């Protein structure tokens, strides 16, 4: 198993990544933080539909101006916080956006 990282190192890496992401956002527009509520399957379904519109605006809305605005909004997302059913859709969205590989085995994190 990989050696345990100190919480200070993990915190520093997290803040470094956040600063880099903020620096990558063009200054002329907003920075977007997403907060997703819980509520079981209803929250999961609603959140998944919203994320899908952000993920593929060209298939969800008519008109290049609105499609461009949604793509810009999506590209300005810095952090996502979610609970319960909303977390299911958030995890799915992030996996789609990052084209995440298979999850790391649980044994790696349990030490």
Q: In terms of topology, how is this protein built?
A:
Elements: H1 7-24, E1 32-36, H2 40-55, H3 57-60, H4 64-75, E2 77-82, H5 84-98, H6 106-109
Parallel strand pairs: 1-2
Helix pairs in contact: 2-5
Describe, in plain words, how this protein is organized in 3D:
The chain has about 110 residues and is mostly helical. It is about 60% helix and about 10% strand. It has 6 helices and 2 strands; from the N terminus they run H-E-H-H-H-E-H-H. The protein has helices at about 5-25, 40-55, 55-60, 65-75, 85-100, 105-110; strands spanning about 30-35, 75-80. Strands 1-2 form a two-stranded parallel sheet. It starts with 6 loop residues before the first helix and ends with a helix.
Structural class: mainly alpha
Runs with pLDDT <50, length 5+?
none
How many H/I helical runs? 6
Radius of gyration: 17 Å
Instruction: State the distance separating the first and last CA atoms.
Output: 8 Å
Strand order of the largest sheet: 1-2
Share of residues in strands? 5-15%
Number of strands: 2
**What assembly state would you assign to the polypeptide chains in this entry?**
single chain
**On the 0-100 scale, what is the average pLDDT?**
82
The major β-sheet equals:
2 strands, parallel
**Helix and strand sequence:** HEHHHEHH
């Amino acid at each position: 198993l990989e050696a345990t990282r100190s919480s200070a190192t993990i915190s520093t890496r997290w803040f470094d990544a956040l600063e880099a992401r903020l620096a990558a956002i063009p200054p002329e527009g907003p920075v977007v933080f997403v907060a997703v509520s819980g509520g079981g399957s209803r929250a999961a379904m609603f959140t998944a539909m919203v994320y899908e519109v952000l993920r593929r605006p060209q298939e969800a809305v008519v008109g290049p101006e609105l499609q461009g605005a949604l793509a810009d909004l999506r590209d300005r997302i810095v952090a996502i916080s979610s609970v319960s059913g909303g977390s299911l859709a958030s995890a799915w969205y992030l996996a789609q956006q990052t084209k995440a590989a298979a999850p790391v085995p649980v044994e790696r994190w349990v030490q």
